[in-house]
Design brief:
The protein has 279 residues and is α/β, with parallel strands linked by helices. It contains nine helices and 17 strands. It folds into three domains: 88 residues, Translation factors (Elongation Factor Tu (Ef-tu), domain 3, Beta Barrel), CATH 2.40.30.10; 93 residues, Rossmann fold (3-Layer(aba) Sandwich), CATH 3.40.50; 53 residues, no CATH class.
């Protein structure tokens, strides 16, 4: 069992947890993830490790309440425990001193890009962070990202915080003012990563994206997380989660992410009904 040591609500549907997992906290590296199972019978959910404290033996998970399993996780209180936490999984982010690194986080994707940004800064890179969301209420960790950044740009679809627009608008503006960019790292909704990758391919900017497809075992055995990268089929859990954004088939990935949409909605309906009966 893995006790919840801290729980903070960041927005209406986003929660920030410290989970006691000393072995994982000691071993994890930026870019890696865990697979959690809240209780017996629950599905296995991949979550990127947003941070860790090896001395306290805790890992930090930022969770968006979407389906049944994430809702059950977000319903946990401090002192309660998660049934299973497996990790660290996946390949760590390859970090080097590229020069000028632009770190783009969208919504809850800001959480997993946070440790990568810190590692890139520690490697000597100049950091520009672009933090985007549909609205101000969905922005998270803005102050923490700003502390790591030489420049932090906030942009929202509705203009409720920072500039109004999309993260691609902010990236175009950087290039337009003559900034030389050596690496782009982007984590967020799949459609956002797709359009960032299309733009950076047009601008000839190297780009890493971190994918979060359907995943079950985390060992490459089930094949649920397969993704097309160029002419090859890759397994996100063991070959990723990060890939060259210019080679990822995002359209195929988005189709695969919707495969179980009907079942997910039915499960959520039953969960809400059960909660009402228990109230």
């Amino acid at each position: 069992m893995f006790p919840v040591r801290r729980k903070t609500q960041l927005s209406e549907d986003v929660f920030d947890f410290d989970i006691e997992a000393p072995r994982i906290a000691k071993k994890r590296q930026p870019g890696q993830f865990v697979i959690v199972r809240v209780a017996e019978g629950c599905e296995r959910t991949p979550l990127t490790i947003a941070d860790a404290d090896a001395e306290r033996g805790t890992i930090r998970l930022v969770v968006q309440r979407v389906g049944t399993s994430t809702r059950k996780l977000c319903d946990l209180s401090e002192g309660e425990a998660i049934r299973d936490v497996v990790g660290p999984l996946g390949k760590p982010t390859h970090i080097e001193n590229w020069g000028h690194c632009v770190c783009i986080g969208g919504g809850v994707g800001i959480a997993p890009i946070y440790p990568i940004t810190r590692a890139a800064k520690e490697a000597g890179n100049r950091i520009t962070s672009i933090l985007g969301a549909r609205t101000q209420d969905l922005l998270i960790l803005v102050d923490q990202m700003a502390e790591l950044s030489d420049e932090a740009i906030v942009i929202t679809d509705d203009g409720s915080s920072g500039k109004q627009g999309l993260v691609t608008d902010a990236l175009r503006e950087l290039v337009g003012r003559g900034e030389e960019i050596d690496m782009v790292i982007c984590i967020g909704p799949t459609v956002m990563m797709k359009f960032v990758a299309l733009l950076t391919k047009e601008l000839n900017l190297p780009t890493l994206v971190s994918l979060n497809p359907i995943m079950i075992d985390g060992t490459g055995m089930c094949g649920g997380c397969r993704v097309q990268v160029g002419s090859e089929t890759k397994f996100t859990c063991v070959d990723g989660p990060e890939f060259d954004g210019h080679l990822v088939d995002f359209d195929d990935l988005m189709k695969r992410q919707r495969v179980y949409f009907g079942q997910e909605q039915e499960s959520l309906k039953h969960y809400h009904e059960k909660c009402k009966l228990g109230a």
